[in-house]
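Input (structure):
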């Protein structure tokens, strides 16, 4: 009987510790940091996707972003997903979505006033999401668009970008 008590106590402790361990804080970013990250990825085609957990179209396109990354990362694609969620809530609300969609590319949290971010990163942008940017291997912004895209549309853009220098 003593053996079962130890097993049950051990299982209870494991369950307790796993529920108490929080997800690690996701990295924060701002316009300047994001621009540096993009430049460090020269030699790769880079997609920057601005999204939020509360944005249905953002969540709808996330599985296609994961498929796209899985298909093209060995050919030189990198994706940076920047969450526009409230930075105070992000460490609680973003990780479950990242796990749900099995996101395996970097996810960052915007830690800057969105208007200041827009003024520095993309002045014409008015805040609509999802907002996606695609960069050439040389780090030049090729395109930007707002709204959800299909996997086929993403693939077309990535293939075109991969042909450029």
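Output (sequence):
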């Amino acid at each position: 009987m003593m053996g079962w008590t130890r097993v049950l106590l051990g299982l209870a402790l494991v369950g307790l510790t796993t529920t108490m361990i929080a997800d690690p804080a996701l990295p924060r970013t701002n316009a300047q940091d994001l621009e540096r990250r993009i430049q460090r990825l020269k030699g790769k085609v880079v997609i920057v996707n601005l999204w939020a957990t509360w944005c249905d179209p953002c969540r709808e396109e996330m599985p296609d972003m994961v498929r796209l990354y899985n298909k093209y990362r060995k050919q030189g694609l990198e994706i940076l997903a920047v969450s526009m969620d409230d930075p105070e809530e992000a460490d609680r609300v973003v990780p479950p979505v990242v796990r749900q969609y099995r996101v395996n590319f970097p996810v960052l949290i915007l830690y800057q006033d969105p208007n200041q971010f827009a003024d520095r990163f993309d002045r014409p942008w008015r805040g609509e999401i999802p907002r996606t940017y695609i960069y050439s291997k040389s780090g030049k912004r090729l395109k930007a668009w707002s709204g959800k895209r299909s996997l086929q549309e993403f693939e077309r853009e990535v293939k075109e970008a991969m042909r450029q220098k």
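Notes: Residues 4-22 have pLDDT under 50 and may be disordered. The domain at 25-163 is CATH 3.40.30.10 (Glutaredoxin).
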